[in-house]
Amino acid sequence: MEQHELWDAVKERCAALEPGSELVTPLSNRPFRVRELSTDHLRIRFDDSGEKRVLRREQFGVLADRLAEHRLAVSELPPGVEPYAAVLTLLADFGVADDEIAYAPGLETGGGSPYLLSPAEARTRPERLRDDALLLADVLDTSDPVAPETLETDALTDLYVLLSDVQHEADRLRQTAREALLSRLGPDQELHGRFGTVRRTTRERRRPKDDETVFDALKMHDVPREWVLGVAPDKLDVVVAATDLEADDVYDVEEQVYVQKTDVEEGEKYSRLQGLAARIKEVDDDETAAELREELLTLETRLDEALSA
User: Fold this and answer.
1) Do residues 19 and 101 share a domain?
2) Are residues 56 and 144 in the same domain?
């Protein structure tokens, strides 16, 4: 492939990427997006750090010539070459086979880059939480979750799945926010926000030291070791599995029945989300949008005044 043909193909394929799509570097798995197409370079931005980098036209040519001679193992790609390799796998004449990047016009995987993430897959965890919360809000607005027994089975299932997804993602984000807050909270200090107050709290969680240390300490205080010895569940599990001892002989078994989420239809959720986004855009374009915003500002002002009072 001629150099100008290669560069035209690179620009055309990057320009055709669906908005919101993301690429990841083959070895280090760093996510990046193509931000600018120019006559002699691509400008990319890494999502994990905000770092910006320029990918030069001539460097694509050098890498393509190298691949025309022999394949490159993904495990041996230098960090600076990784973004170039990821972009080249978007082209029909390049692909990945047996963990090697190759120039092979007849390769079945050509153009089907494993390093390309769709807009739905490329969302960050906060973005996924926001989207799931929006879907949940729509379900809550269009159903009657106060009386779940009145919902159709499919609607009730969707409600449960969304509640579970929001709970898990919110808890992960809560832990991240907690670490950030701890760095700003001093002892006995409180921080106030519009929606609530937080303070530093310390809890003690104890776990036994190793057996030898514990037994030595007991001996020093004339405490019989039998006082602290007991049945170890993990050892008991081995005995039950390896002998004819029945679990009922040594365990009190209590059966708990619960609902387990086994699958999430991310594609369906994202499709529904796109529909909600279109509806929101229609509201934004409508004359009532200004009135809605004015009402919200008025309500916000009244709340601030009430809290101040």
Assistant:
1) yes
2) no
Residues near 276 by beta carbon (within 8 Å), at least 6 away in sequence: 134, 135, 138
Rg, Å, the chain Cα set: 29
Within its chain, how far is the Cα of 305 from the centroid? Answer: 39
Instruction: Please state, in angstroms and rounded to a whole number, the distance separating the CA atoms of residues 297 and 303.
Output: 10
- CB-CB contact of 14 with 37 (8 Å): yes
Instruction: Return mean pLDDT, the chain.
Output: 84
Kindly state whether residue 242 falls inside one of the protein's structural domains: no
| Nearest C-alpha neighbor of 13 from the set 104, 115, 96 | 115
* 183 lies in some domain: yes
pTM of the prediction?
Answer: 0.65
Q: Provide the β-strand partners of residue 7.
A: none
- Provide the β-strand partners of residue 53: 44
Phi/psi of residue 257, each to 5°? -105, 130
Pair (108, 180) in one structural domain? no
Token pair of 45, please? Answer: 């931005």
Task: List helix spans (H) across the chain.
Answer: 3-15, 57-69, 82-88, 119-122, 125-142, 153-182, 211-220, 233-242, 247-250, 266-285, 288-308
Nearest alpha-carbon partner for 110 in 96, 131, 130, 124: 96
Residue 68: which domain range? 3-118
pLDDT at 56 over 60: yes
Residue 296: inside a domain, yes or no?
Answer: yes
One-letter amino acid for residue 103 of the chain: Y
| Confidence (pLDDT) at 106 | 65
